[in-house]
């Protein structure tokens, strides 16, 4: 990668990221105008990830997983969302409140709990960062990264398409795995013409998981406790040894599932504020998780049952349909691809639909 190509890639990333940030913020303001502070920011991140996923899948399925269509598609989608949502019909109703204006105290446990949470967060971030720096210096060496995560991402770029099944070994197993995480690695390779961003991506998912952990406890005044719990999970040896500085996607699914839970509990803090748009955004986060790793189908399935069962009478069908549609929009592509290719959405589980 030459310096000129690197600078061009950074410029193209800026052209895409700026309108996506503006568009997701405007979209969140239109869908969830009363939200503010950390939950509002979390919703914006989920909306931006959903837009990137849908656009990349649509272009990739059409054989347009290349730099010009992707810059135009992603940048155009962000700009279109900003343009469509920037004018609000009722300024007083749609104006977001400043952080803290909702009267929520995220920490009712005192300074000690906050100190413990900060120390736990600092330790896990330091551990992950050290391994990420090592990967940047010496290359990515973890097994699954070299086995199929990054080869599939590179194949997306080489083929300009995400519709084909990629057989990276003799056993046709990983070819049918959902590949949302590989999609983001592929975008990084596409923009910079190298895998320079790949070791860094899981640090971003780590940050999202920790942020979602804070948001889960925020409505109840125990945000430091839930943040500490997530930090402890992410500091376990199995995750620390595999996730930083590579293409493993366990942290991706965990972060997105936590984001879905956080959006649900913040939307349900007051029953009157549990709008359908909040449910849809939470459903997008859950859908992104099942589009990352099929093992999250069980957790999301339980969450789906809870969402429908806890909905007020008379609204269960409506809310259930909105939730399932959001799930399918960002999480169903890879399962539909498998169904079309081999007649089975989950071949490794021997799921059969019909004769």
Q: What would you say this structure looks like, in words?
A:
The protein has 355 residues and is mostly helical. 69% of the residues lie in helices and 0% in strands. Helix 5 (111-138) runs antiparallel to helix 8 and helix 6 (143-159) packs across helix 7. The termini are far apart.
Q: What's the overall geometry?
A: globular
End-to-end C-alpha gap: 51 Å
Helix percent band: 55-70%
Q: Summarize the helix and strand pattern as letters.
A: HHHHHHHHHHHHHHH
**Mean of all residue-level pLDDT scores:** 91
Rg for CA atoms: 20 Å
Main sheet characteristics: none
Strand content: under 5%
Give start-end ranges of low-pLDDT stretches.
Answer: 89-95
> Helical element count?
15
> What structural category characterises the helix and strand content?
mainly alpha
Extended strand count? 0
Quick summary:
The chain contains 15 helices and no strands.
What is the topological layout?
Layout: H1 3-31, H2 37-61, H3 67-85, H4 91-94, H5 111-138, H6 143-159, H7 180-192, H8 198-217, H9 223-234, H10 237-242, H11 250-267, H12 276-290, H13 297-309, H14 316-331, H15 333-342
Helix pairs in contact: 1-2, 1-3, 2-3, 2-11, 2-12, 5-8, 5-9, 6-7, 8-9, 8-11, 11-12, 12-14, 13-14
């Amino acid at each position: 990668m030459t310096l000129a190509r690197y600078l061009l890639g950074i410029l193209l990333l800026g052209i895409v990221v700026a309108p996506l940030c503006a568009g997701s913020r405007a979209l969140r303001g239109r869908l969830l105008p009363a939200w503010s502070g950390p939950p509002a920011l979390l919703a914006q991140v989920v909306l931006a990830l959903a837009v990137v996923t849908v656009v990349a899948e649509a272009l990739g399925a059409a054989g347009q997983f290349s730099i010009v269509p992707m810059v135009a598609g992603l940048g155009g989608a962000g700009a279109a969302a900003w343009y469509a949502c920037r004018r609000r019909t009722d300024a007083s109703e749609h104006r977001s409140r400043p952080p803290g204006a909702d009267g929520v105290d995220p920490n009712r446990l005192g300074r000690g709990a906050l100190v413990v949470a900060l120390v736990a967060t600092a330790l896990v971030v330091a551990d992950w960062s050290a391994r990420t720096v090592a990967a940047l210096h010496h290359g990515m060496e973890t097994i699954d990264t070299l086995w199929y995560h990054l080869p599939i991402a590179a194949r997306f770029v080489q083929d300009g398409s995400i519709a084909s099944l990629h057989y990276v070994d003799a056993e046709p197993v990983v070819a049918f795995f959902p590949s949302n995480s590989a999609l983001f690695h592929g975008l990084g390779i596409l923009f910079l013409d190298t895998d320079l961003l790949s070791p860094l991506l899981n640090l971003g998912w780590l940050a999202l998981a920790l942020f979602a952990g804070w948001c889960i406890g925020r409505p109840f005044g125990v945000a430091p406790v839930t943040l500490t719990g997530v930090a402890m999970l992410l500091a376990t040896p199995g995750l620390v040894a595999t996730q930083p500085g590579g293409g493993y996607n366990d942290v991706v699914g965990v972060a997105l599932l936590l984001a879905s839970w956080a959006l649900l509990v913040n939307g349900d803090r007051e029953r009157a504020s549990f709008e359908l748009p909040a449910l849809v955004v939470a459903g997008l986060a859950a859908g992104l998780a099942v589009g990352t790793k099929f093992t999250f189908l069980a957790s999301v399935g339980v969450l789906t049952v809870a969402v429908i069962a806890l909905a007020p009478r008379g609204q269960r069908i409506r809310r259930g349909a909105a939730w399932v549609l959001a799930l399918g929009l960002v999480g169903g592509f890879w399962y539909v691809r498998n169904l079309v290719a081999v007649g089975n959405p989950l071949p490794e589980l021997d799921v059969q639909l019909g004769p």
